[in-house]
Design goal:
The complex is a heterodimer of chains A (about 525) and B (about 170). With about 525 residues, chain A is mainly α. In chain A, about 50% of the residues lie in helices and about 5% in strands. Chain A starts with 9 loop residues before the first helix and ends with a helix. Chain B contains four helices and four strands. In chain B, helix 3 crosses helix 4. The chains are: A mainly alpha (about 525), B alpha+beta (about 170). Chain A: It comes from Durusdinium trenchii. Chain A: Its EC number is 2.3.2.31.
Amino acid sequence: MDGSDGGSIAGDSEEFEYEDQDVELKSGGEEDEDQMVIEPPEVRKAPYTIMNAGDLANRQNKCISEASDLLQVTHEEGFVLLRQHGWDLLRLQEAWFDNDQKVRNRCGLSTAKCTSPAPSSNLAGPKVCSICMSAIDDLVALDCSHGFCEECWRGYLHTQVDDGKSAVQTRCPQHKCPMVVPTAFFSRFCDVERQKKYQDWCLRTYVDENASVKWCPNPVGCQFACEYQGVESLEIHCQCTFVWCWACGEEAHMPASCKTVNQWNVKNSAESENISWIRAHTKKCPKCHKPIEKNQGCNHMVCSKAGGCGHEFCWLCLGDWASHGTSTGGYYQCNIYDKQSKQGKHAEEERSRQEAKHALDIYMFYFERFMDHDKGMKLTVIQEQDIEGKVQRLHDEHGFAIIELQFLYDALRQVRACRRVLKWTYVYGYYLDDSNEKPLFEYLQKNLEEKTDCLHEMLEKDFDKIFFDQDNQLSSGSEEAHQKFMTFRSHATNFTNVTQKFLTQILTDLGSDTGLGQRFSQSST
Amino acid sequence: MASFASKRLAQERAAFKKDHPFGFYAKYAPNEDGKGQNVFKWNCGIPGRAKGPWEGATYALTMEFTEDYPSKPPKCKFAHVHGKPLFHPNVYPSGTVCLSILNEDEDWKPAITIRQILLGIQDLLDNPNAASPAQEEPYRMFSTDKTEYLRRVKKQVSEVALGAQNV
């Protein structure tokens, strides 16, 4: 992956001062001479490699060539051996030089383990294919010399491919014969479509059976794979823009740990159905806070005496039904709530409700915010296309250089990175005890959330208001337009910078249980 | 024109007739309407191996083939004994035999002959595979109380010997 576009906006940013001078930055980066260099949101100097199908094929070939050189076996044998050893050349090498015959036997590259007798080829008379049992002169066999006619080979290999990707492990059709059928046989006997399938599976084995290569788990679908030598959590920035965790294969979830994320996902899948139903169909009794389902048409609710408190209230305003007399405008014209809440009548009730917060409330509190940030994060992907159009318009109408508009992308990507981290801070927060850490955590979270929102709004609303307001069109190329643009850019760049600092800070401070925060701050400052 | 599967089955039948292990039988089942034979359904018999717990009777088993044969294995099913399945850890309550060479996702190969299948099942009778249980009671007994297991097997062997298997 190329890692060169790191400092494209560094020069611009030097003219600007931070707006938030009171931002207290952790003094983590003293060695860092140039404090003003803005790193793009993604970590650039990655210890891993992102690969597309072509890269994978090259990598796989290189790996096979190395093995066949080293062990002095054919390319085909190298492929089989590596596959059986999880594409780990060291492991294969060790086993091979310990006892190569044993490895050959185990991997189906020798006839030694074959308990099926070789056909009696020295007998006079025609040879017989053991699948169709017809006498045929030209039999095709692997090294084990179990011969089959071409038609039966074709049928056998077609069935294997049609049965799925285990076709790459196809063995000789003879009973108990472990010989692996080489790729060349598939090319020889399969039609083009099946050959393509087979070759695709061969390539996929490089990822599927390899502990150091994984497919990008983007739920939208992604063709890229990632190679990394390690097992710990690490944020992988895929070229499809999805960021995921190497260890657990979920979306990148700092500052929460893999374990916490797993716990959260289990909880979500167990509760989500119940919760969405409860949310859609019930309100809480204002007195005892039990969820109540409205199962009749009128708004006069009676909290079930059996399970609840028997309280009578209005479905619309949740006020006491006793106050819904004709004096207030009739039972079904419910305009009482405003008056009451203004008079503070609900305040006490509200407070006691807050105090009596049910576990479900707490969960939903975190869950809703988790989902909000998730939604916001996904929106930025759509907005990025949107911005592309706007960049073109600004370029056409006002003559700004495309390169000068790069800051918009950087800002948006910064928002995306922040939203993702914010999303997971709510998971982190949900499982955080009311310890000393909580106030600090909430403070950091608040800061990041606030700044992220500002930046997001700036990109969504301010930007449009300045440049794409129908009523107040800027004349193209004017001094005013230029001025406004410079101001906006200065603002946006500053905010991008500031949110980046907050992001780094929250991850550094909270990341101690995962070790992720440490790594993040090292690679991004 | 006869299908690939039926040709192979005809070859199998001929080969079995010419030479088969002692005590075994394998032949086409009669059609349900009583007219002619069904090439895709075979009635077979597997004798219990000498000196093994199943010695003393021959166990009736049906083999059902599909047009995909020999790409796909036949389904092998023991006949019930007094309405009960064969008392064996790897025989499903339906009578179907659970054996790796009879599973297309495991060790089935198109070159496996009917003779090899029958010998494989005979071997399975004496050597149950505790790793893939198919029937609860015999499995539990086989793994906890061998004496009781053998007693139950013996009981079934004598029932079969007296003609209790309804083919």
